[in-house]
């Protein structure tokens, strides 16, 4: 059973954290979930990493502020910049020493990029490997929802307007009955050709736990982020990027631009898969994770590896 606890942020937000494995493991893998989801979306990867590496790896997941079992936050902190700061604080609290592999899905991948941008010294001292799953470094540049650009622009306008309304709804959560009615839309937006009913139920449950403030509040920051230059400085790290060719939110050009910025990255395009690769294609995601983990474990750790305090955000 995972260890469950909370980590407090300086502004009073409390993040729900789960950890599996020994704190003395050689490497800690930190798995960051996507927008409106929570740490449960990684359950197949947590099990796979534990089986593949045994005592060599500790696996940590946590619910981002305003998501899952973490507490809600003030609207001005519903930004990727704040999520990058939160990640630095979680690392200091949960795994203050040793090497870390950062794994991010969608908003989680963007959080990793923001952490690297805002805390470069902290990032460099701790991070030994990267895995990007269905994410982007270019905001909504490539997002057309699988539709024509003209229709995509109309959908984005409606989405942006709706996000502004939701952001002002505070800590309220969407009624479960409404989300159940919207399951066909959720399935179309997030999944590709194949989808297990249990996965739809898990995603619907996660959206039901996310505060309306977080659903609406993070939208502007997600759409505006551009961090390809930040990624280019990380080319020395073992890395992998995965995307589904039916992904309507972060289509293949998003992963291709990440791989171009990180030339040593192993790029995997999954035919017929949508945005939820960790559920739709767990074998491919698990193989990428264990591949990066083995590359990290094969390299000797630095002779001295101390804790680097989180830098003041610039």
UniProtKB/TrEMBL annotation:
User: Which residue ranges does the record assign to the AB hydrolase-1 domain?
Assistant: 30-288
**Domain of life here?**
Bacteria
Record key words, sorted: Hydrolase
**Coiled-coil regions in this chain?**
none
- Which GO molecular function annotations are given, in alphabetical order? hydrolase activity
SUPFAM superfamilies attached here? alpha/beta-Hydrolases
Output the Gene3D superfamilies linked to this UniProt entry: alpha/beta hydrolase
Q: What is this protein called?
A: Alpha/beta fold hydrolase
Q: Which organism is it from?
A: Micromonospora vulcania
């Amino acid at each position: 059973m995972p260890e469950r606890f909370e980590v407090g942020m300086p502004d009073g937000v409390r993040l729900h954290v789960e950890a599996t494995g020994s704190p003395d493991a050689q490497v800690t893998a930190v798995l960051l979930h996507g927008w409106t989801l929570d740490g449960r979306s990684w359950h197949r990867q947590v099990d796979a990493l534990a089986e593949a590496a045994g005592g060599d790896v500790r696996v940590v997941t946590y619910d981002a502020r305003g998501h899952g079992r973490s507490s809600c936050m003030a609207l001005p902190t519903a930004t990727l910049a704040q999520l990058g700061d939160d990640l630095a604080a979680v690392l200091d609290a949960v795994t203050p020493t040793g090497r870390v592999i950062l794994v991010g899905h969608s908003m989680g991948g963007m959080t990793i990029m923001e952490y690297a941008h805002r805390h470069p010294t902290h990032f460099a001292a701790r991070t030994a490997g990267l895995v990007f799953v269905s994410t982007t470094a270019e905001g909504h540049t490539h997002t057309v929802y699988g539709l024509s650009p003209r229709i995509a622009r109309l959908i984005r306008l409606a989405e942006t307007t709706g996000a502004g309304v939701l952001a002002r709804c505070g800590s309220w959560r969407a009624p479960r009955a409404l989300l159940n009615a919207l399951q066909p839309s959720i399935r179309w937006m997030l999944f590709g050709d194949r989808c297990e009913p249990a996965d739809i139920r898990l995603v619907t449950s996660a959206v039901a736990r996310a505060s309306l403030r977080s659903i609406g509040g993070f939208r502007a920051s997600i759409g505006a982020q551009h961090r390809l230059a930040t990624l280019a400085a990380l080319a020395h790290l073992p890395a992998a990027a995965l995307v589904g060719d039916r992904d309507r939110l972060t289509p293949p050009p998003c992963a291709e631009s990440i791989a171009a910025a990180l030339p040593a990255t192993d790029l995997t395009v999954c035919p017929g898969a949508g945005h939820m690769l960790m559920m739709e294609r767990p074998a491919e995601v698990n193989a990428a994770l264990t591949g990066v983990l083995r590359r990290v474990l094969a390299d000797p750790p630095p002779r001295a590896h101390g804790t680097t305090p989180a830098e003041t955000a610039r």
